[in-house]
Automatic annotation (TrEMBL):
GO molecular function: zinc ion binding
InterPro entries noted in UniProt: FYVE-type_Zinc_Finger, ZFYVE21_C, ZFYVE21_C_sf, Znf_FYVE, Znf_FYVE-rel, Znf_FYVE_PHD, Znf_RING/FYVE/PHD
CDD domains the UniProt entry points to: FYVE_ZF21
Name the record gives this protein: ZFY21 protein
Record bears the keyword Zinc: yes
Domain of life, source organism: Eukaryota
Organism: Cinclus mexicanus
Pfam families: FYVE, ZFYVE21_C
Record keywords, A-Z: Metal-binding, Zinc, Zinc-finger
Domain FYVE-type residue range list: 1-53
Transmembrane regions: none
Length: 180
């Protein structure tokens, strides 16, 4: 590799080449100066990564350290299926193998994550001046396996004291970050 793969600087005795530990491409020191932990690839200490990979690694670390735990612990919502008027109190969580969204109440649903097509977070408290908003619900659209039919579920954080609203808001925030 005679040149930096980012800025095209030629490598020589003064300008040395460095490899990004995530993607393996060759970069100059300026383009590969970020040092970020990469535990998923067995690097315990922070290692040299290009800017693009460093950003991905930081987001990945945040996901595994924060959002994944919240999603797997679950939260309680009133869930409405399709255009129904009736909602059911259900605990929503990510399955242990992280492949399904599991909903448990009087009914039981398992939605395969790869079948989810749209995640829309419902908020309240928005002001025209850009004030604080908080997540109060979510609309989820997914395909039914073996068919082209798209189903919709609406999740709303409970208003009563049996539902922990703070936990539900944290779960919705994690779901929002993951869906981006």
């Amino acid at each position: 590799c005679p040149r930096c793969m980012q800025c095209d600087t030629k490598f020589d005795f003064i300008t040395r080449k460095h490899h990004c530990r995530r993607c393996g491409k060759c970069f100059c020191d300026k383009c590969c100066s970020k040092k970020v932990p990469l535990p998923r690839m067995c690097f315990v200490d922070p290692v040299r990564q290009c800017a693009e990979c460093a950003l991905v690694s930081q987001k990945e670390t945040e996901f595994y350290d924060k959002q994944l735990k919240v999603l797997m612990n679950g939260a309680t919502f009133f869930v409405t299926l399709g255009t129904s008027d009736k909602s059911e109190l259900m605990v929503c969580r990510l399955s242990n193998n992280q492949r399904y969204l599991v909903l448990d109440g009087d009914s039981h649903y398992e939605i395969e994550i790869i079948q989810i097509s749209t995640v829309q977070i419902l908020t309240e408290g928005f002001t025209p001046g850009g004030g604080n908003t908080r997540a109060v619900g979510m609309i989820l659209q997914y395909k039914v396996p073996g068919s082209e039919e798209v189903m919709q579920m609406k999740f709303v954080a409970g208003e009563d004291f049996s539902c922990n609203k703070k936990l539900s808001a944290a779960w919705l925030a994690a779901m929002h970050k993951v869906s981006k």
